[in-house]
Amino acid sequence: MFRRMMLLIVLLTLMLAPAALAQDADKPTIAFLRYAGTAPVTAATDGLLDSLEAYGYLTSAERAALNESYDLQGENINLLYRDAGFDLPSVNLMVEEVLDKGADVLITVTTQVDQIAVNATRNLEDPPAILFSLVTTPFSTGIADAPCVKPDHVTGTQPLMSFADYVPLVLVQDPDIKVIGTIVSPDQPTSLVGAEIITEIGESLGLTVEVTSAVSAADLNIAAESLLSKGVEAIILVINPLTLQGTPVLVGLTAEYGVPLYAPIIQQVYRGATVGAGFHSFYEEGLIAARILNAYLSGDIDIANIAINQSRSFGVAINLDTAAAQGLEISDDLLSMANFLIQDGERSIGMAADVDDTATNPQAMSAEERRAADLEFLAELECTPEMIAEQQAALAGAD
Q1: Domain-embedded: residue 6
Q2: What is the pLDDT of residues 82-128, one digit of tens each?
Q3: Does residue 349 lie within any of the structural domains?
Q4: Are 291 and 378 in contact (CB under 8 A)?
């Protein structure tokens, strides 16, 4: 009798196992890949994960656990969470790893990560969907040719940095300035593109633009000293993880020379930049990526027909403590543009409207309201044949 019962249990187990495996196979596996945990990346990450909780993919307990753990075998979703820690070779390894694990979707944060992921999947017969966030230069780095001219398995959201508003700030502060400088990293395409734009705009404003390079944190001192020895009157940084991470080092050097340090991310004033100016809606970028992800998982959209979203925002912040250490008096015109100030180590409201870093709470809407808003938003991103033809014609004309 006992042996018969054991045999029955074994048979039931074998019968139920495939069903259990099939159910688990239906649970999507999302790989979240980022270059490093900078403030903008962390904000975008929070926006995405908060949205996954709002959509019901993550329980509140799972969302809380993700603050401290990397991988999640959740009730409704599996999450592979990878961070390269500013190490570019590690990006290749983590992309290969999540592809080997059979990830259904890759969420790639920053240009470096997305470029590697797209290149690794471009020729696959059945590639996973790739949704990117905080990719500032998708068109000049080979990720896509235009918002609707792109690999069928790729889309995402691009924060548009207004260099046309950023670079002239040096003249708002000092109308008599003649020479500015910037630092690039040869292995970071975004920084190279940024330096080209800064040079073009700076020269159009009658400025001399000095450019030097740094490939590691140890090079930053030498790079900054090189610029300062050439008489630059301001250092204006490009979007470059190395220089943004090394902002405190650059602040110390510029203080010795009485030269202001401008950073292209408003939150860099918290790390000591004299002026932070640029795109600031990073949390919102995470929400947008989540909107696309949810619609894809729900079967509401075909990634091939969804254009790359382009977001615009521009804000200015000033660190008066750094300015004082550099012996600088910030001009009234620049102060009037500030969304907020840092003074005596505290954030204070400036003369312009304050910047809300988490403008949209995904939990504030009902499921019905959220779905309606998402579908309305995504309808604006649908690529029609006419749009594709127009963008292809524009590309052909540019050639």
Answers
A1: no
A2: 999 888 899 999 999 999 999 999 999 999 999 999 999 999 999 99
A3: no
A4: yes
Same domain for 204 and 338: yes
Do 34 and 171 lie in one domain? The reply is no
Which residue has tokens 């054991």?
A: 6
Alpha helices in the chain (DSSP H): 2-25, 39-54, 60-65, 88-100, 111-121, 163-166, 169-173, 189-204, 220-229, 241-245, 247-257, 282-297, 320-325, 332-337, 367-379, 385-398
- How far is Cα 296 from Cα 306, in angstroms, rounded to an integer? 10
Residue owning tokens 């408003």: 266
Shared domain for 33 and 148, answered yes or no, is yes
Q: Which two tokens stand for residue 315?
A: 């804000």
Task: Give the pLDDT of residue 187.
Answer: 84
- Which one, of 156, 89, 136, 86, lies nearest residue 116 by Cα? 89
**Distance between CA 101 and CA 87 in Å, rounded?**
21
Question: In one letter, which amino acid is 293?
Answer: L
pTM (predicted TM-score):
0.82
Question: 329: domain CATH number?
Answer: 3.40.50.2300
Average predicted confidence (pLDDT) for the chain? 88
- Domain membership of residue 134 as a residue range: 26-160+282-312+380-398
In the 8-state DSSP scheme, what is residue 141?
A: T
Shortest CA distance to 118 belongs to which of 85, 88, 154? 154
Pairing type for strands 78-83 and 72-73 reads: antiparallel
* Each residue's pLDDT tens digit, 338-383: 999 999 888 876 544 445 444 556 767 888 888 899 999 999 999 9
Q: Is residue 355 part of a domain?
A: no
The reply to whether 67 and 143 lie within a common domain is yes
- Residue 94 phi/psi, 5-degree rounding, is -75, -30
**Chain position carrying tokens 């159910």:** 23
Question: How many domains does one find in the chain?
Answer: 2
